[in-house]
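Hello forum,

I keep getting stuck at the same step: I have a sequence, I want structure tokens, and every attempt I make locally crashes halfway through. Rather than fight my setup again tonight, could one of you with a working pipeline run this one for me? It's a single chain of 189 residues.
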Amino acid sequence: MNKKTKKIAIVVITTIIIVCLILLLILNIDIKKVDNVITENEIVPEEEISDEQLRKTTLTLYYVGKNNEIKEEIRKVDSKKLIDNPYMIAMELLLEKPESNEVRTCIPENVKINNIEKKGECLVVDISKEFIDNMENNVEIQGLSIGQIVNTMTQFTEINAVKILIDGSDDVTFKNGNINFKQFFTNED
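Reply #2:
Ran it on my machine without issues. Output:
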């Protein structure tokens, strides 16, 4: 080999070594960047989820909005409580005051639940006479109070109608006599 060929060989080998070192350096930097992204995207829970939190389900309660329209309020309820009688739990929650300031109830205070019984696709809700005695003498308010009960109870897919009894009787009417309790109330009423 002559001197010129040796110089070319040395330059080529040196260039190949430099290119290889640069490639290794670049590949090494890319790996560190990927590792940083993975580390930054890890999800670390702040607290463990309890069994009670896992059992929470939503229940829709119906109240009255500012323009006298039926509006829904969502409540989180422990599904374990709903196993025996979900209708009783829903009615008890409905008789409480709403959590939101955007809605109100038209159901009078001090109304008590005597009994709730499912008969086929109908739910028989027996409530105390305070529902009649303490009700405003306004047909719209009376209808809204019944609508609250009916909409809340017909959210359960197996319930298509609600029969309301007052202290076990359907032979009652409001003071103005406009709403008859002998009928079945549906969500379409």
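Residues 52-166 form one domain. If your local run keeps crashing, start a new thread with the error log.
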